[in-house]
Amino acid sequence: MTIPLLPDGQMWRLSVAPMIDVTDRHSRFFHRLLAPRALLYTEMITTGALLHGDQARHLDFDAAEHPVALQLGGSDPQALAASARLGEQWGYDEINLNCGCPSERVQKGAFGACLMAEPHLVADCVKAMQDAVAVPVTVKHRLGLDYSESYDFVRDFVGILFQAGCRVFTVHARNAVLKGLSPKDNREIPPLRYDVAASLKADFPDALFVLNGGIAQAEQAVALEQQFDGVMLGRAAWHTPAVLTDIHRRLWESDVLLDDDAVIDHMQAYAAGQVQAGVPLRIVLKSLLGWPHGKKGARQWRRTLTDPVLLSQNDAGLLAQAWQELKRQNDA
């Protein structure tokens, strides 16, 4: 195996985290309109779902989503290699291995955050995927397991993967507590330790480190991006997606971004096409609910776009109607 050189870090400066039931292809299309250079991730997709399920349903995406990364869940090197190969064939720009999800479902499957306790197995998985594809193979992980705050644990984990050829690490700067905390609690209760993530960057200068966890404001994201090789937003991209535009504008000041009217036009055209293809309108629009957060009429916007009677008509014009009402309230 040839150890890859340090990749160009531009692709990782701003990214949206893989989130189950959130970062589907419709959400990614919307986020792309808001932040043209952001790296977008799929939901975590298990190797079993890809190798034995509906590949098109899991892997299909719009060309506008590039750069887009496929996140895999699994612990068998050969199954991961086969799944990575599918991802590359489908056109994904990166293959990411999940070593951070603490849910009971992934614990039963012995992958996700559990893998941090088996770094040599993860190294075998990384090597198998790297042998299978030419696109970057990256890892997303936590700082530790349960309540141990040993730096040696995460340093050794990263070190073993670095020796295996991994050069890009997305660090969720919290521990994963495998027993007693829900996935939601695991995003909030274990303390953030940005200083530990910074120590990893200092100890492995020939790798890229993207910081994830607790990043919600544009000013905070830009400041952290200067300390790390990139920042990854999670729930903030869902609850307050306009923050993606704010961050993009600060990181790439010369870029001309779409105005809000143009975003609506693009989303309405996209939604109409998806509805025609058989996708329920509610599925396409759910990622837009938090977009006008903090504006007058935001509650009415959410009420309109979640109204079951209106949505049952599957008319993408509903988005334009909701937008005109929101503008009317803010122009008054």
Give your account of this protein's structure.
By secondary structure, this protein is an alpha/beta fold. It has two domains: 9-251, Aldolase class I (TIM Barrel), CATH 3.20.20; 260-331, Four Helix Bundle (Hemerythrin (Met), subunit A) (Up-down Bundle), CATH 1.20.120. Helix content is 47%, strand content 13%. It is built from 17 helices and eleven strands. The protein has helices at residues 25-34, 47-52, 55-59, 77-90, 104-108, 119-132, 151-163, 183-186, 194-203, 218-227, 235-239, 242-251, 260-276, 281-285, 298-305, 308-311, 317-331, and strands at residues 14-16, 39-41, 45-46, 68-73, 94-99, 137-141, 144-145, 168-172, 175-176, 208-212, 230-233. The strands form two sheets. The protein has an eight-stranded parallel barrel, surrounded by six helices. Helix 10 (218-227) links the parallel strand 10 and strand 11. The protein is globular. The N and C termini lie far apart (64 Å). The model is unreliable at 1-6 (pLDDT under 50).
Annotate the secondary structure layout.
Blueprint: E1 14-16, H1 25-34, E2 39-41, E3 45-46, H2 47-52, H3 55-59, E4 68-73, H4 77-90, E5 94-99, H5 104-108, H6 119-132, E6 137-141, E7 144-145, H7 151-163, E8 168-172, E9 175-176, H8 183-186, H9 194-203, E10 208-212, H10 218-227, E11 230-233, H11 235-239, H12 242-251, H13 260-276, H14 281-285, H15 298-305, H16 308-311, H17 317-331
Parallel strand pairs: 1-2, 1-11, 2-4, 3-4, 4-5, 5-6, 6-8, 7-9, 8-10, 10-11
